Amino acid sequence: MSFAKASVRDAEVEGRRVLVRVDFNVPLANGEVTDDSRIRGTLPTLQLLRDRGAKLILVTHLGRPDGPDPELSVAPAAARLGTLLGVDVRMAPAVVGPEVEALAEELAPGDVVMLENSRFEPGETSNDPELAHSLARLADVYVNDAFGAAHRAHATTEGIAHLLPAYAGLLLEREVEELEAVRDDPAQPLRLVLGGAKVKDKIGVIRRFLDVADRIMIGGAMAFSFFKRQGIAVGKSLVDEASVDAAGEILERADETPCELMLPVDIVLGRGFSAQTERRELDGTEVPDGWMGLDIGKRTGAVYADAISSAGTMFWNGPMGAFELPPFAAGTRAVAEAVADAPGTTVVGGGDSVAALDEFGLADRIDWISTGGGASLELLEGRELPGVAALLDSEAVSSKQ
């Protein structure tokens, strides 16, 4: 299976200004980046461009600011990138404007400048044509290496791609290839573990894979939408009420397919969402009044781990419970360890799942860790990603060479 869009490898960039959309939406603490994995993920693309004599202009969003906010400046990300690349990454004073255009004009081959947080501009999320044109004036070529934002039709991901020759970065290219392999050509048996809070975020994926996976394992708070639909008491457990009916539809659909939809058989309870709360192991799924489910139980963890152990392809998105609270981390750890030990191809997406792998020291044992939670789910569901669709087709580039 080949990537259908033009790759940055094919772009003529020597001596040209290249606007690169990166995804540096990274966690910050005290003005410093606390997890630079997304920054590291773009290094191959950025180094390739620098080696080929490009002048780099980088743009990213960070958080969800309502206008300019010094606390959400991308300056810490620029500083971290400079350390990783071993170059001085200059900070632009804004996203667009005369000062930024002047700075772009001054760049020499190999130079790197970072624009300010793209969401400081109100036109970013509305895909404002004027903002897209202002960005296009800064560069000669556009490269999208921000897979985590590729499912958004924003000015920096979709609008600008229609105004400049637009190519896929190496990270975005690899992301699409790895996830399309899971979706379209997985080694069998294909198994999924889906957790987290909301069924609606994953309902499209569940529907699609009921026809091609042989087991889908449900955990996390989303399990309680299924339980509630079945008439099982959920106590104070977090329930995505808007997804209860959808959970019922999935249960009915699962009965009509060969796929086994697996729900927890035991639960770890807490009185409240706290590491200090009273804890209780429930042998069953009927949650008493005054309690909430905060993790899958030992039996469920063992059953899921056993299913994972014989997967030809394994995809995991979403924790099994409140793993950030030590008393309720065992279920997520059991799944994480099983995925890390699985003999088949393993792919993990979603920020919380990745955070769990990092916390348990297992990330280096996964075949592919996606940088895009929402984007990975939409791609697996079969939906078109605007930031990918807008790029040049590979055939169009090949015909010109």
Features:
single chain; 401 residues; alpha/beta; Rossmann fold; 2 domains; 6-stranded parallel beta sheet; 16 helices; 17 strands; 35% helix; elongated
What is the gyration radius calculated from CA atoms? 23 Å
Number of helices: 16
Any low-confidence stretches, pLDDT <50, length ≥5?
none
Tell me about the largest β-sheet: 6 strands, parallel
**How would you sum up the global shape?**
elongated
Q: Briefly note the CATH topology name of the largest domain.
A: Rossmann fold
Helicity range of the residues?
Answer: 25-40%
Going by CATH, the homologous superfamily of the largest domain would be Phosphoglycerate kinase, N-terminal domain
Our count of domains comes out at 2
The average pLDDT value, as a whole number, equals 95
Structural class category:
alpha/beta
What's the CATH class label of the largest domain? Answer: Alpha Beta
Distance between the termini: 22 Å
CATH architecture of the largest domain: 3-Layer(aba) Sandwich
What is the number of E strands? 17
Strand content: 15-25%
Strand order of the largest sheet: 5-6-4-1-7-8
What does this structure look like?
This protein is α/β, with parallel strands linked by helices and 401 residues long. The chain has two domains: 8-175 and 384-400, 3-Layer(aba) Sandwich (Rossmann fold), CATH 3.40.50; 188-343, Rossmann fold, CATH 3.40.50. Helices cover 35% and strands 16% of the residues. The protein contains 16 helices and 17 strands. The protein has helices at residues 37-41, 43-51, 75-85, 98-105, 129-136, 155-159, 170-184, 203-209, 223-229, 244-255, 298-308, 330-341, 351-359, 373-381, 386-389, 394-400, and strands at 17-21, 28-29, 32-33, 55-59, 89-91, 112-114, 141-144, 166-168, 190-194, 215-218, 260-262, 267-270, 279-282, 292-296, 313-317, 345-349, 368-369. The strands form four sheets. The protein has a six-stranded parallel beta sheet with strand order 5-6-4-1-7-8. A six-stranded parallel beta sheet has the order 11-10-9-15-16-17, with helices on both faces.
